TrEMBL record:
Top-level taxon of the source organism: Bacteria
GO MF terms held by the record: DNA binding
Stored SUPFAM superfamilies: Cell growth inhibitor/plasmid maintenance toxic component (SSF50118)
Name of protein: Growth inhibitor PemK
Amino acid sequence: MGSCEVWDVVRLPFPYTNRPVHQYRPALVLAINNGTGSPRLLWVLMVTSAENRGRPGDVEIADLAGVGLPVASVVRSAKIATVEMDMAERIGRLAMPDRRRVIDAVRDRLSVAGICNY
């Protein structure tokens, strides 16, 4: 565990905002803190089953085999977390067409928040 790159799908204990627990689940690595300090940190987006109720900003993953997921899944752009890289286990990599849709969804989220207007 602990080695991954941007656009990798990893398995890690994802924190919940509404309860003090973590559940092992897939997540998409969006950014890596490459600073010299310890620990190295990842910004990740939650990945969840497409069967769950959809939310604005969800991005369907078209290439399931490439990301190592057994069921139809979505990247949930509204659920972002910062986690230690040592906790992440790489399971796959997001395909380029799916990456573009995730970038658009994140850009839309930031634009709505007034952070990014392009």
